[in-house]
Design brief:
The chain contains nine helices and two strands. By secondary structure, it is mostly helical. Among the domains are: 49 residues, no CATH class; 86 residues, no CATH class. It has a two-stranded antiparallel sheet with strand order 1-2. The mean pLDDT is 76. InterPro entries: PDDEXK-like_dom_sf (IPR011604), Restrct_endonuc-II-like (IPR011335).
Length: 204
């Protein structure tokens, strides 16, 4: 004898149609449902319904599950959790952003013993910027992503996102293929566009 799970609207051998229905999904209609254990306290364990043996109490915290609210620690709370979404949740009570740069942070002394040539020394010195210069550069370039000319100037250049690919180029055909992809550019996806649009909000 084989017992199979009935399927919705499927005829069996006796021409009996399955009348399966979907259960109601939602919050408890009445909070007195949580007091079911008191109603069955005089029954023996074998006669109690399953809900009366689960330790349901109105003192326990309710948590969100994929089937609605359930008690914390119950089977539903850890077997049917709310699936995470990719949408960003904006917190209203988030802590303030720390002031940058952090005053207590200092770079550890370097152990490098390399002696630069005069040309290398002046080149490294030219890369140094003060905090005031950094603020001015940030203010001047904050809106550059919206400028089409900036994108045209940036497209043929080897940027940080392409630097790793350049380091692993092997052979002429591989280099030509990479150059073609760099010149062609990368199509901006919906996620990339959303990240660019929310960059200002994140920076605030």
């Amino acid at each position: 004898m084989v017992i199979r799970k009935p399927r919705l609207k499927r005829l069996t051998e006796g021409r009996v149609r399955s009348t399966l229905y979907k259960g109601v999904v939602g919050d408890p209609i009445d909070m007195s449902l949580l007091m079911i254990e008191e109603a069955y306290k005089d029954f023996c364990i074998g006669e109690k319904p399953l809900a009366a043996t689960m330790g349901i109490s109105d003192e326990k915290t309710l948590v969100e599950t994929s089937l609605g609210l359930a008690q914390r620690g119950s089977v539903l709370s850890y077997q049917q959790p709310v699936m995470p979404t990719k949408s960003v949740k904006m917190h209203q009570d988030h802590p303030p952003y720390p002031p940058l740069p952090v005053g207590e942070y200092r770079l550890a002394p370097t152990d490098c013993v390399h002696v630069c040539t005069e040309e290398e020394y002046f080149h490294l010195k030219s890369l140094n910027v003060t905090l005031d210069m950094a603020y001015k550069i940030e203010e001047a370039t904050s809106e550059q992503a919206a400028d089409q000319e900036w994108h045209q100037l940036r497209r043929p250049r080897i940027t940080s996102s392409r630097f790793r690919e350049v380091c692993f180029v092997r052979g002429v055909s591989s280099a030509e293929s990479l150059a073609e992809r760099v010149l062609k550019g990368t199509r901006q996806t919906a996620e990339m566009r959303r990240g660019a649009d929310m960059e200002y909000e994140v920076a605030r």
